[in-house]
Specification:
The complex is a heterodimer.
Chain A: H1 2-20, H2 22-43, H3 56-85, H4 88-93, H5 101-127, H6 136-164, H7 167-183, H8 196-204, H9 206-217, H10 231-234, H11 236-261
Chain B: E1 2-15, E2 27-40, E3 44-48, H1 55-62, E4 70-75, E5 78-79, H2 84-88, E6 91-94, H3 106-116, H4 121-134, H5 150-160, E7 168-172, H6 180-195, E8 199-204, H7 207-213, E9 216-221, E10 224-229, H8 231-238, E11 242-246, H9 252-262, E12 267-269, E13 274-278, H10 283-296, E14 302-306, H11 310-318
Parallel strand pairs in B: 3-8, 3-9, 6-7, 7-8
Antiparallel strand pairs in B: 1-2, 1-4, 4-5, 9-10, 11-13, 11-14, 12-13
Helix pairs in contact in B: 3-4, 5-6, 8-11, 9-10
Classes of the chains: A mainly alpha, B alpha/beta.
Amino acid sequence: MNAVNDSIVIMKRQLLQLIRIPEVLIFSTIQPVMFVLLFRYVFGGSISTGIPGVDYVQLLMPGIFVQTVAFTLAGTAVGLAQDMERGLIDRFRSMPISRSAVVVGRALGDGALNVVVLLVMGLAGFVVGWRPSASILSIIGGFAFLLLFGFAMSWIGVLIGLSVRDARVANSAVFLAVFPLTFLSNAFAPTTGMPKALQYFAEWNPVSTMVAACRELFGLTNIFGVTANSLPAEQPILMSFLYMIALMVIFIPLSVRKYKNSTSR
Amino acid sequence: MKSVITRDLVKVYKVSARSKDKKSASKEVRALDGLSLDVEEGTVLSVLGPNGAGKTTLVRVLTTLLRPDSGEATVAGVDVIKHPDDVRKLIGLSGQYAAVDETLTGWDNLVMFARLNRMSSATSHARANELLEQFSLGDAAKRPIKTYSGGMRRRLDLAASLIVKPKVLFLDEPTTGLDPRGRQEMWGVINSLVDSGVTLLLTTQYLEEADQLADEIAVVDHGKVIARGTSDQLKREVGGERLEIVVEQQHIPAVREIVSKISPNVIIDEDLRRISAPVATGTKALMEAVKALDDAGIHPLDLGLKRPSLDDVFLSLTGHVAESEEK
């Protein structure tokens, strides 16, 4: 059980960082809250939900939750790249600790950060009129699903962080990868308004299936365009789950291997 | 008993000037080129060499961070290549940079490393306090590392490598980048460790440091050990006293001519405009030189007899001055 002990120590280190520099937590929640306000009040008035009786804010909140959780992999990548630069990864690798602990602990730590961020955003959403209509159990399920998604996505961040070895590069690499995914999706506007070709991409996009899954869990119906009768539209929860498993199956072994062979110089 | 043994270690890096540009030919750098050395248990070996000599690569191989392309290495009797996990239980490593979490406090860091060494929570706390006291960091224990001076960071980094007393401790350039005071402090700390009987392999590019701390010195250049011995042995190898003359640039050829009549092995340091040569006849040689210089009408800026320093050893062994590759 050494691997578990080691992972927990590394995860605790990250939580301790949040206590030592509370600014990190503050800024990682302020940005999503700004997005909530921006889309709710600036763009929201002009975007039609396409569903009678449902205001935009109901559709928006699951979208912003998914976007925020997806972007936490930036923190994972930057943090690991910094540890590489500073030689901390070398120290860990020269110690008799479990080979997977450093990266597992990091992914778990970032998952834990998401708990706080989602809580703050949920409250902010409530303030601006978000009222999920599903049962409390289903809503909790939605948040648990979001946390799992964050954990799965953070493994991409682990691989990026260990590969680029430079915190600034890590940040821009993540932004380039995640930004199009979150905007070419149903997170902020219905895909039905997009050109046909783009609809295919946007509706199969894991971010969209996640958003659709969350909307379902929070008690909304989803509207799909061109893919209306295929798997993502019919079974967004299942589809998202498959995506997460695929992410983890691909990126966890790659990341652990990268860690074992990584050298800072 | 030998605590560290390496035989014919080779590590070649492929370096391309611009990795994205496929046209640029990749160049091979032989960081280790058949390096063999050993360290007797309970002694301090200083691996001395300029930047790029292969010192850090050697440490990275011995601490399991890097696999050599060929060759053998054992640490505390354990094969580094075949059983890296076992080696990690026996070693401590403190590198060129303070490899600690900058945002956490000194205490947080040490507790984390103790916990990673599978100590209980209570033991970890006790060990952290003990080490902070030992390295005079007690007052800074609850401050983030960010606020530490360079010397304090290095001491904390060293403390982190001593959580479990290692059989062999590796220090990779422990004082590089420190100011003179920080260096003195670090030397004090390392000397007290040495007194406690730890086997230490220390790399340095400072000859003075090797002289101060090490029982034995291995001079490394271009990935090979080019000389080996105590500091006295190495100095003896270079010979006794040296005649040294510093002159204006334009007089260098003339002075070279004069000195070479006294002793054939003239070494010229163009940067320092210094001409030097080993001499066996002491003051007699000096007088000869003075007379010849005077006859030639050359007034040296500096002139004298010098006992050999490790710098001279290095110069005569490698044909270039230490640290020259840094410029």
